[in-house]
């Protein structure tokens, strides 16, 4: 290597003074190159599974009983910019799949981790839908979303085994259709909102927001399958109860029929429409899906809060 | 995600110089970072913030446990950094295995602080900002500390010729 004292090395040492500066810089540059070479060969002891340990420590601290909760900081008040950085940070600290695999879920929904989400079958019929007489080639919204047949709000409220919660958000207005699924114990009431300002159209087409609620304490056969990669899962507190925010939409809700002795879970995918906020409120488990940020979902959820 | 566990663990290792202490410190740090998440002000990058927590935890552990045994300049029975036998390539720039060992031993003879700043910058390839957070000093201080550490390293190597 030609020694050119007038050529400055890549990393001139700051603070070096004196006449031998150029030669000293040359030596230091050589040493730095040797250190970088050495660095490639250095072997460290294996990295322990820090994220797993954190999750198990948090699990130990979780409250006993229905729907164990991770003690989480209240992130819901943060601005979108902060939230973005934190979702990245959260992923760094506790991989989503680990959080879920630790068994920390929501009442009524078992959360499982899968490598690839199953493509939902086109227009898989919900069993409680009566035959429809309109346009036989176009599946109804209820069918497409797998949430049951359309009913009036009064019917749903009367037949549900609980007090149905309706968002009281001025930007939202009234739902465009209400659906009732009687296969779910106590009934699952779903409110469907068409796209409107603040509610962009989701993948499901014609849907801006899907809001489903059911008795989490009475139902064991619902599963939420989350892809290992690509979904950010954020534990959040919603209206005083535990919840999860799922972003990335690599998740699918399934219903498994509770047939005793049946070995395989018959997956009947319920189409998801965007990001999802799922939480426990009283006896209910509520699922809110839309192509909106967390702040919006929390705002809508807050309007459903019971005093 | 695993990359960040690895960097955190290795920072703790360079500070505590004991594998067990590094495991404890980095685990504790991750837990603290989780709990402190709502105090993390975005706009700042995430990793330096995390590494500061790791370094603080490692330093606390070292302070409370380190005095129980005198650390020898050459810790052979402690964490051992083993240069791997890399396939030799016909380039005169690559160090021989012997030269690498020589360099490694020279580093081990430096003070804890000198070893640490060299380890963070070269072995872990932390940026200046991340090194500053891990050391708990200003960025300018990193430059001068590194420069002095390299100077002392050169002296140690020169003395062994």
Kindly describe this structure:
- The complex is a heterodimer of chains A (307) and B (161).
- With 307 residues, chain A is an alpha+beta fold.
- In chain A, the strands form 2 sheets. An 8-stranded antiparallel beta sheet of chain A has the order 2-3-4-5-12-11-8-7. Chain A has a 4-stranded mixed beta sheet with strand order 1-6-9-10.
- The longest helix of chain A is centred in the first third of the chain and has 21 residues.
- The radius of gyration of chain A is 27 Å and the shape is elongated.
- The N and C termini of chain A lie far apart (78 Å).
- Chain B is an all-alpha fold and 161 residues long.
- In chain B, helix 3 runs parallel beside helix 6.
- The radius of gyration of chain B is 17 Å and the shape is globular.
- About 7% of the residues of chain B have low confidence.
- Rg measurement of chain B, Å: 17 Å
Kindly estimate the percentage of residues of chain B that lie in beta strands according to DSSP.
under 5%
| Approximate strand percentage of chain A | 15-25%
Task: Report, as a whole number of angstroms, the end-to-end distance of chain A.
Answer: 78 Å
Largest interface: A-B, 48 and 53 residues
Derived structural class of chain A: alpha+beta
Based on CA atoms alone, the radius of gyration of chain A comes out at 27 Å
Helix share, percent of chain A: 10-25%
Largest sheet of chain A: 8 strands, antiparallel
Strand order of the largest sheet of chain A: 2-3-4-5-12-11-8-7
Global shape of chain B = globular
Task: Outline the low-pLDDT stretches of chain B.
Answer: 70-80
The residue fraction in helices of chain B comes out at 55-70%
The H/E string of chain A reads: HHHHEHEHEEEEEEEEEEH
Provide mean pLDDT of chain A, rounded. 69
Strand count, sense and barrel status of the largest sheet of chain B are:
none
User: How many strands appear in the DSSP assignment of chain B?
Assistant: 0
Number of helices of chain A: 7
User: What is the molecular shape of chain A?
Assistant: elongated
């Amino acid at each position: 290597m030609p020694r050119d004292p007038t050529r400055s090395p890549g990393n001139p040492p700051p603070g070096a003074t004196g006449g031998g500066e150029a030669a000293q810089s040359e030596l230091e540059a050589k040493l730095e190159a040797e250190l970088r070479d050495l660095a490639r060969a250095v072997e460290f002891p294996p990295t322990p599974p820090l994220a797993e340990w954190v999750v198990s420590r948090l699990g130990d601290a979780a409250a006993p009983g229905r729907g164990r909760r991770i003690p989480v900081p209240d992130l819901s008040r943060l601005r979108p910019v902060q939230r973005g950085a934190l979702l990245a940070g959260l992923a760094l600290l506790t991989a989503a799949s680990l959080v879920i695999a630790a068994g920390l879920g929501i009442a009524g929904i078992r959360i499982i981790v899968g490598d690839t989400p199953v493509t939902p079958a086109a227009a898989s019929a919900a069993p409680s839908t009566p035959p429809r007489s309109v346009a036989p080639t176009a599946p109804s919204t209820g069918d497409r979303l797998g949430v049951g047949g359309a009913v009036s709000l009064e019917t749903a409220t009367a037949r549900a085994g609980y007090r149905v919660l309706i968002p009281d958000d001025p930007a939202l207005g009234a739902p465009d259709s209400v659906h009732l699924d009687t296969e779910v114990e106590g009934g699952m009431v779903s409110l469907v909102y068409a796209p409107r300002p603040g509610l962009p159209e989701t993948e499901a087409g014609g849907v801006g927001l899907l809001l489903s609620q059911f008795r989490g304490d009475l139902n064991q056969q619902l599963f939420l399958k989350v892809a290992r990669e690509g979904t950010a899962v954020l534990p959040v507190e919603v209206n005083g109860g535990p919840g999860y925010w799922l972003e990335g939409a690599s998740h699918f809700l399934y219903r498994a029929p509770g047939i005793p002795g049946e070995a395989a879970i018959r997956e009947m995918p319920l189409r998801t429409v965007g990001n999802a906020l799922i939480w426990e409120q009283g006896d209910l488990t509520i699922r809110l899906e839309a192509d909106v940020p967390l702040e919006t979902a929390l705002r809508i959820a807050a309007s459903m809060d019971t005093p | 995600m695993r990359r960040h566990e690895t960097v955190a663990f290795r920072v703790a290792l360079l500070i505590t110089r004991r594998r067990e202490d590094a495991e404890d410190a980095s685990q504790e740090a991750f837990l603290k970072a989780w709990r402190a998440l709502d105090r993390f002000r975005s706009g700042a990058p995430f990793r330096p913030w995390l590494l500061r927590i790791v370094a603080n935890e490692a330093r606390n552990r070292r302070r409370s446990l380190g005095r129980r045994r005198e650390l020898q300049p050459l810790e052979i029975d402690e964490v051992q950094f083993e240069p791997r036998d890399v396939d030799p390539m016909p380039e005169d720039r690559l160090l021989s295995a012997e030269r690498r060992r020589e360099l490694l031993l020279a580093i081990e003879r430096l003070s804890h602080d000198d070893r640490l700043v060299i380890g963070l910058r070269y072995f872990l390839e932390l940026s200046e900002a991340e090194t500053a957070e891990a050391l708990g000093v200003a960025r300018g201080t990193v430059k001068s500390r590194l420069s002095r550490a390299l100077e002392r390293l050169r002296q140690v190597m020169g003395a062994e010729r």
